[in-house]
């Protein structure tokens, strides 16, 4: 009888409204102490002052389809700078009537990346699919075969150049970083010294220095009449720089593997290559997924530094548009657009890494 009354009381008595739902969350997280309450009030006051003005500037008084002269006469944001110059911002100096080719190449690259994120597709056929996709992308960008007009790489620019430098740079830097990490852990003194020297040397200089060396210093060592494509030189500099940082992250993962794992592999009769491929690296690389993705995201954003060596990536094409007197003074709108593109790319990488961590149960 008593138990029945207790159960009935539990069913009828509900927690106060100030402890559950939205009100309960606000009380617990925003007004749980005098200091947090003060911060909440100050923050809300700041937002109430800034947000209405921003909304008025960005949406109410803004112009979306207009000329530069009309934008200068208006008081709001001039989003017209984006649709009026979108093709140059995205494709740079690529021939106007051939810009469908880099567009198709970008769509193909994004499709391959989206398809590859599913671990069920990680088979040998995926490697062949990437090889075919890379060939088609190179053919579309360069041309010269199957009736496609040849386009020099000096005309490449905008978003395709940014994606090429970032995707292929990160793809090549990751395995190189793993090799460097293994070399630094090697028991062979010569290999260990070389890897340590390389990693510490590259990590001791900024990426800008490597880009300048690839653009200015490296050509001085080439025989007369021999040149190396500027995009290729920048790509190699990005790969070498990113690989050094990845190597240190992977080395941390290798140090996190217990000695028992090595002993277990040795008891099974596995050699060094089999031990690393089947036992050690799968565990080490899972451990360091978060810091590795942080390095990759930073490297992706750092590709914008190629602007200093006169490569017309997404940032450089946008700056070129802003140098047009018709669109001067609207850098805020243009850079917000570029920032959104970078945000979508970086957020996609971060979101995928979290999902991959969950699938691999790295937190357990």
Overview of the structural elements:
- 71% of the residues lie in helices and 0% in strands.
- The protein contains 16 helices and no strands.
- α6 packs antiparallel against α7.
- By secondary structure, the protein is mainly α.
Topology (elements, then pairings):
Layout: H1 2-12, H2 21-29, H3 34-60, H4 68-73, H5 81-91, H6 100-116, H7 124-142, H8 158-184, H9 189-203, H10 207-217, H11 230-255, H12 259-267, H13 272-287, H14 289-302, H15 314-322, H16 331-360
Helix pairs in contact: 5-8, 5-15, 6-7, 8-9, 8-11, 8-14, 8-15, 9-11, 10-11, 11-13, 11-14, 12-13, 14-16, 15-16
- List the uncertain runs: none
Strands, total number? 0
Helix and strand string, N-terminal first? HHHHHHHHHHHHHHHH
In round numbers, the mean pLDDT is 87
The profile of the biggest β sheet is: none
Subunit organisation of the chains: single chain
Distance between the termini: 45 Å
Into which percent range does the helicity of residues fall? over 70%
- The share of residues in extended strands comes to under 5%
